[in-house]
């Protein structure tokens, strides 16, 4: 996360430097005033600096503490989180089998309560990890903001105000949902195939190659639900999802998770009848 936060600072600094360089060129060679260059004067016929000016303001806004933390959480949600939570779900779900304690827990607790408890503990862990990630990101972005706020000349910029903390809740909810979905997917896949270390490279390869080689993105349904409620500031903007109705996307996700859990429960309960 620190690398992404420092990358946001580098992007903001580059955007501001580019703005100053273009403005100096327009002023010296074209006789532009700054207000005319950004299209704010009454006699402005063009605005050659407008897009650069707006982009610089948005980039600097990404250095606000809450906005920066939300940006980091969005990167986690759409890029890093699915792989991390899939891995966590796969390893956590097979820990009992690895240490040969599963059969004893099945006898002591019963298979159905044990299966529900494992899924519930996974959801709880994902939620706790995501909240911790948000707080950690907030600490990083606050430190970066305090360290670099005086290093960037914002006199020519219109920088949006920082987000309020409640505005970060949609991103937090989306990240938790993404984490739960992929953690349960990892749990089900690892339980069915019993070899999490074999399936992880295949998942990682497919997760990145499928969107590149085709028009389908495994995160598309999640992005359909998230996109209308998330504001992307500071340079990171994931591709817009393919058009799917929100209710259909939610139904398909719920049906997919329920189907995965049902198949996993049916398969492992039959296995347990022979191994306990």
Can you describe this structure in just a few lines?
Helices cover 74% and strands 0% of the residues. With 276 residues, the protein is mostly helical. It is elongated.
Kindly name the structural category.
mainly alpha
Q: Give the count of structural domains.
A: 1
In the predicted model, the low-confidence regions spanning at least 5 consecutive residues are none
Indicate the proportion of strand residues: under 5%
Outline the biggest β-sheet: none
The number of strands is: 0
> If you compute it from the alpha carbons, what radius of gyration comes out, rounded to the nearest whole angstrom?
24 Å
Order of helices and strands: HHHHHHHHHHH
Helix-residue proportion: over 70%
Q: What is the count of DSSP helices, taking H or I runs of 4+ residues?
A: 11
Mean pLDDT across all amino acids: 78
Give the overall form: elongated
- Our measurement of the CA-to-CA distance between the termini, rounded to an integer number of angstroms, reads 44 Å
Ordered list of secondary-structure elements with their pairings:
Blueprint lengths: L1 H29 L3 H4 L12 H12 L3 H29 L1 H4 L3 H8 L1 H38 L20 H25 L2 H18 L6 H7 L19 H30 L1
Describe this structure in words.
The protein has 276 residues and is mainly alpha-helical. The chain has one domain. 74% of the residues lie in helices and 0% in strands. The protein has 11 helices and no strands. The chain has helices at residues 2-30, 34-37, 50-61, 65-93, 95-98, 102-109, 111-148, 169-193, 196-213, 220-226, 246-275. Helix 4 (65-93) packs antiparallel against helix 7, helix 6 (102-109) crosses helix 7 (111-148) and helix 8 (169-193) packs parallel to helix 11 (246-275). The protein is elongated. The model has no long low-confidence stretch (mean pLDDT 78). Keywords: Membrane, Transmembrane, Transmembrane helix. The chain crosses the membrane at residues 72-94, 115-148, 168-185, 197-216, 246-267.
């Amino acid at each position: 996360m620190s690398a992404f936060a420092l990358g946001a600072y580098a992007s903001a600094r580059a955007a501001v430097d580019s703005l100053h360089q273009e403005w100096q060129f327009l002023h010296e060679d074209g006789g532009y005033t700054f207000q005319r260059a950004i299209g704010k004067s009454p006699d402005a016929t063009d605005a050659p600096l407008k897009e650069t000016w707006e982009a610089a303001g948005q980039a600097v806004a990404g250095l606000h503490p809450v906005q920066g933390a939300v940006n980091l959480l969005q990167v986690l949600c759409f890029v890093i989180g699915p792989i991390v939570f899939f891995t966590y779900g796969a390893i956590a779900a097979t820990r009992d089998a690895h240490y040969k304690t599963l059969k004893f827990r099945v006898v002591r607790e019963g298979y159905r309560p044990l299966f529900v408890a494992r899924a519930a503990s996974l959801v709880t862990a994902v939620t706790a990890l995501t909240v911790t990630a948000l707080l950690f990101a907030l600490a990083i972005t606050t430190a970066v903001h305090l360290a670099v706020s005086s290093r960037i000349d914002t006199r020519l910029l219109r920088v949006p105000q920082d987000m309020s903390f409640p505005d970060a809740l949609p991103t937090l909810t989306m990240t938790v949902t993404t984490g739960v979905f992929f953690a349960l997917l990892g749990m089900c896949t690892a339980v069915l195939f019993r070899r999490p270390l074999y399936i992880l490279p295949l998942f990682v390869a497919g997760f990145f190659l499928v969107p590149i080689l085709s028009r389908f993105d495994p995160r598309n349904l999640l992005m359909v639900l998230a996109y209308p409620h998330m504001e992307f500031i500071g340079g990171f903007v994931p591709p817009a999802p393919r058009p799917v109705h929100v209710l259909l996307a939610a139904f398909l996700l719920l049906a997919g998770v329920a189907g995965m859990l049902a198949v996993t429960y049916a398969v492992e309960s039959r296995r347990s009848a022979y191994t306990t």
